[in-house]
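Quick one, probably user error.
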């Protein structure tokens, strides 16, 4: 405990958070078990070119592949399997295989070692998705359990259909930008759209009333 209390702030390396567009990028998964499956789920709707290298895959991955863009090559790992990959997930239960993947990956490739986050190029945060809203939680590897707890808390805070409210904000913003020239008026309307009433009406399914309220606001401030 003394060592923990005496740890100096700022002496550890922080990860840089970003939203990465991987559409059309080659993503290689080495492994076909539960660890690989958990990481695969995070790639839904990314439109990446996903290849799974593994002698076998669990049923959950088979089902996942029926709904998403991915291919499975049934074989043991070889260095040539990752030559064209932009991102690599070494997600096997065999440490020696994961080490071999790291040994053969190129400097420009991003690698995640499921059994050794400290030697990985990136980490995957816990994520709550509500439509186009993505909330990512990370403790930089300090406590994955805490990240999962915060994720559960956020899932309770943001309803399943909260994405509908985000979609409404996007459509309303486009209308405001296209039809109002005055910068201050634009800002005023966009700020007013964050009034909780618009979210409440959307979540409760009162779409007609919400749209009427928006059009009234738009007419008043235009």
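Nope, works fine. Designed sequence:
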């Amino acid at each position: 405990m003394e060592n923990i209390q005496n740890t100096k702030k700022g002496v550890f390396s922080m990860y840089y958070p970003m939203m990465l567009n991987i559409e059309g990028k080659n993503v290689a998964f080495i492994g076909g078990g539960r660890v690989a499956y958990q990481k695969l789920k995070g790639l839904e709707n990314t439109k990446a070119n996903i290849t799974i290298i593994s002698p076998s895959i669990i049923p959950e991955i088979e089902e996942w592949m029926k709904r998403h863009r991915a291919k499975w090559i049934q074989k043991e790992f070889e260095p040539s399997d990752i030559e064209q990959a932009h991102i690599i997930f070494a997600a096997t239960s065999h440490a020696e295989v994961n080490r071999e993947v790291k040994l053969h990956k190129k400097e420009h490739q991003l690698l995640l070692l499921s059994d050794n986050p400290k030697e990985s190029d990136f980490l995957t945060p816990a994520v709550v998705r509500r439509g186009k809203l993505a909330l990512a939680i990370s403790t930089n590897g300090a406590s994955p359990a805490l990240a999962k707890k915060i994720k559960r808390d956020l899932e309770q805070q943001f309803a399943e259909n909260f994405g509908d409210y985000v979609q409404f904000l996007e459509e309303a913003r486009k209308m405001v930008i296209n039809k109002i020239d005055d910068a201050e008026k634009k800002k005023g309307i966009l700020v007013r759209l964050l009034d909780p009433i618009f979210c409440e009406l959307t979540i409760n399914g009162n779409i007609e009333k919400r749209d009427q309220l928006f059009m009234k606001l738009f007419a008043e401030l235009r």
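Strands lie at 26-30, 49-53, 70-73, 87-90, 110-113, 126-130, 133-137.
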